Amino acid sequence: MQIPSVYISDNQMLWLDLGRVYNIAEVIWNGKNLGVLWKPPFRVNISDVVQPDENTLEVQITNLWPNRLIGDEAKPDIRSFQESRRGEGPAEWDKWLELAGQEQQSGRYSKQTGRYTWATWKHYDADDPLLKSGLIGPVKLIPQIIKNF
Description:
Layout (H helix, E strand, L loop, with lengths): L1 E2 L8 E6 L2 E3 L1 E6 L2 E6 L5 E3 L7 E2 L2 E6 L2 H8 L8 E4 L2 E4 L2 H13 L28 E4 L2 E6 L4
Antiparallel strand pairs: 1-7, 2-6, 2-12, 3-11, 4-5, 4-8, 9-10
């Protein structure tokens, strides 16, 4: 990312504004971690890390847990569920926990199915709507002139 040198001076600050974010963003500018943004405004001061000409920006967005659960419902499941008076829970707890624990240690929930998550309750179905998530933007650079009175 090219930043004109006119935006880099001692008498101004430069802000990175991510616009709308759902829900958590971690900002890394030129390899320096500028922290986690978790509420509006999703804005961070980049004055100390910006350089003339070439810059690198990395924004890591944390997706929502319900979206991951909904996505995994489209994949096969090693669990079997049974109806209860409050919803659906695992039918065979001992077997289910043993399988889930083994798969979790391998770094993925299930090599057989491609699922990443597991829960003790079936909260969502594969066709449930996803919640808003991600970097919506618009992403802007905002210069701020500092005046001493």
